[in-house]
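#dry-run=false #mode=assembly
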Amino acid sequence: MLYSIQKPKISLQFTKSCTLLAIESSCDETSASVIVNGQVLSNIIATQDIHYKYGGVVPELASRAHQQNIVPVVQEALTKANIDKNALQAVAYTQGPGLLGALLVGCSFAKSLAFALNIPLIAVDHMQAHVLAHFIEEPKPVFPFLCLTVSGGHTQIVLVESALNMKVIGQTQDDAVGEAFDKTAKMLGLPYPGGPLVDKYAKEGHGQAFQFSKSNVSGLDFSFSGIKTSILYFLKDKTKNNSNFIEENLKDLCASIQESLVNMLMDKLIKASEATGINQIAIAGGVSANSGLRTRLEALGKEKNWTVFIPKFEYCTDNAAMIAMAGHFRFQEGIFEDLGSISNPRLNTFFINTL
Ligand code: KG4
Ligand code: ZN
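#status=ok
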């Protein structure tokens, strides 16, 4: 497989001075961040605990919690950065993908603030922002690089040609890997979100203890529905004669599930590096917080002579600092939304007056 790689269209030199507020509200974290000339000064994240008892994110509850959180979170982000709202030069927000009602809260708040302050509004793609989280701190990758973006809703191998130019060269055909972690965790009786708990128990288990069959997909695409079904039938079979099977083997089960999922990701990443000839490899998204994935990538990096980029935990799961970084790149290029298309910004002025 051959991929033509274009030269970066924009440089990493931050030429235009830029003080920007960014808002993230795509799922169940309400987050705001202030970035000044490419330096993140604050990154406030309010997690919504209300979903735990439902075993997953309830969209309507997420929207309502965003509405409650957004003013204090933005206020805290400005205070921590020591920036007055009148010093802002732009507002960035997550346009999508995400839960519609949740996105609408961040979007309408950002639009209203930009309108009230008469400053540009910047729409940011959530998945691109996960990739651009790598530019928040040193060491920063050099274009072009590959990024395995793994979250609750996506699993992609992205060829990153520049901050604005990214090609998805491989993706899941069904479930996302984060979903596979969360759903199999649920089968083990673990609460939502199960991914971090599988990671925790896996640390004390044996990754080779149990084997699960996986569906094979050609090329650089992924499929996680097969392994999920395989784990389900495996557990049904084992608990038939021993109802304590899961309790007795929880650590080994978590380690084996994690090792299988990480192997599936790494197999395709190796293929992608071979197909593109690129050996700068990054990971991003919530699942990049997984310790098994991080350790395996570091080991592979040494073995394959890759330069590996692993984000700080704070920038793996959903956060507004990554939206701020993506917004910063768009500000440099003057890519703004048309504020004239706002239907009725007055609807949201009550938010702004409280800042
Ligand atoms: O990027 P993210 O915060 O939100 C989405 O955009 O989806 O990713 C959330 C996903 C969830 O599926 C969660 O279980 C998973 O990331 N996750 C983990 C870990 N931390 C978060 N999965 C495995 N191990 C972890 N340590
Ligand atoms: Zn995300």
